[in-house]
Specification:
This protein has 385 residues and is mostly beta strands. The protein is built from no helices and 31 strands. The chain folds into three domains: 3-191, no CATH class; 212-290, Sandwich (Immunoglobulin-like), CATH 2.60.40.10; 306-384, Immunoglobulins (Immunoglobulin-like, Sandwich), CATH 2.60.40. It has strands spanning 3-4, 7-8, 16-17, 22-23, 42-48, 51-56, 60-65, 71-78, 83-89, 92-97, 104-108, 126-131, 135-139, 153-165, 171-180, 183-184, 188-191, 212-213, 220-224, 234-241, 247-251, 255-259, 264-274, 286-290, 306-310, 315-318, 328-335, 340-345, 349-352, 358-368, 380-384. The chain has a six-stranded antiparallel β-sheet with strand order 5-6-7-8-11-12, with no helix packed on it.
Length: 385
């Protein structure tokens, strides 16, 4: 897809407001990192722990903030490897791709371009570059790759297209797989923990109690429920949105206060789960009314960024601070050539590093906790190198 509601979208990715069935307003566009439009595709999406993971057809795996869809972490498979499948198992996210071990996987906090870049556009600084794998594992909480997970898989160029976990602790992998640990395979294989036989536990935890509303502050939900029991042990609970069937929160205890909930009416139910992956039947549903902060006022326009220091690869910027009817939460520096955020900062200043030679045109916007964004500042042009 290239458009929703008549609005152009990037990388075949869009956020839809289920209440209005239209594009979610005031969220960032998914970053593009390839000049060829036929590469602007997304193959899989996974939301957990307040983040959205997007597996892309331009060798990218993007980790976004769930509320704003601002880019937090960017992975680029060099020089082969579209990401094609995502799976959450416990605290680990597995990503399948056609990025074989002869390639590398680079991590940054900004966009890394695949192939040619637009004139004046620079790649974000690479924070880590490690040997790649047909299947990679990432910490679902931090978004950082587990470099110790390197399965002995051989595959054709199409790579991995399907991932699934089972109650016996194994990971099933499907795609153009030809061998595992030197043994011939035919498009499918499974990985299990070596030398650690897992006792088969197929028994569900008991059904938890219906959530009880404990009252909470603006944009928060406080719920508690009667705990579940299990033949081995209850590992935790998943709090579901009853209208979408999606997991909103995960907790180890039977209750808690959950933040960043949109104001309005919500319905929740709970399921318990154990270490073997068994999930209980759903609890009863609880309707909750969530209060919000009534703030629709933009922060004032920040000052035009001024250069405080300049080197051949970096620039330190300062600008006059914005004001707001509640409080300014932070600032974002934009590259006007791409319209993309280069970096964010809590205060009126930042240092940009790893800049390429050439001309760079920048502006600044401020924002508040309610998501209101200021008009842009004046434009500053930098000549790097």
């Amino acid at each position: 897809m290239t458009a929703v509601d008549g609005e152009p979208i990037t990388n075949g990715f869009a956020s839809i407001d289920l209440a209005t069935r239209r594009l979610t307003p005031n969220v960032a566009n998914l970053a593009i990192n390839a000049l060829r439009p036929n590469l602007h595709l997304s193959n899989d999406v996974l939301a957990t722990n307040g983040r959205v993971w997007v597996a892309g057809n331009q060798h990218s795996l993007q980790v976004l903030d769930e509320q704003t869809l601002e880019l937090e972490t960017f992975y680029l498979s060099k020089h082969q490897g579209d990401f094609q499948a995502l799976l959450l198992v416990g605290d680990t996210i597995y990503a399948g791709c056609h990025c074989n071990p002869r390639t590398t996987l680079a991590r940054s906090e900004g966009v890394l371009w695949w192939g040619s870049r637009p004139p004046g556009v620079v790649n974000a600084p690479i924070l880590e570059s490690t040997a790649n794998s047909w299947v990679n594992a990432f910490d679902a909480e931090t978004g950082v790759r587990d470099n110790s997970f390197v399965p002995d898989i051989e595959s054709g160029g199409a790579g991995i297209w399907a991932l699934e976990d089972t109650v016996d602790g194994c990971l099933w992998i499907g795609g153009q797989i030809t061998a595992t640990a030197g043994t011939e395979q035919f498009a499918m294989t499974r990985l299990c923990e070596p030398d650690q036989p897992v006792a088969l536990d197929a028994e569900r935890p008991s059904t938890p109690g219906r959530p009880q509303d404990q009252g909470a502050g603006p944009n928060e939900v406080a719920l508690s429920w009667r705990p579940s029991t299990d033949n081995v042990a209850v590992t935790g609970y998943r709090l579901y949105d009853a209208d979408t069937g999606k997991v909103r929160f995960v907790t180890a205890t039977p209750g808690g206060t959950f933040a960043n909930v949109q104001a309005g009416a919500h319905r929740f139910y709970v399921k318990a789960f154990d270490a073997a992956g068994n999930e209980s039947w759903r609890s009863g549903t609880r309707s909750v009314s969530v209060a919000g902060v009534d703030d629709h006022e933009r922060p004032s326009v920040p000052g035009q960024p001024r250069v405080a220091a300049l080197t051949p690869t970096s620039a330190t910027l300062r600008w006059f601070a914005s004001s707001d009817n509640v409080a300014v939460a932070g600032y974002r520096i934009y590259n006007l050539a791409t319209g993309r955020v280069i970096t964010g900062t809590a205060g009126p200043g930042a240092t940009l590093t790893g800049l390429d030679r050439g001309e760079l045109r920048l502006c600044v916007r401020s924002y508040d906790a309610a998501g209101n964004v200021s008009w842009r500042s004046g434009i500053t042009t930098l000549t790097i190198g």
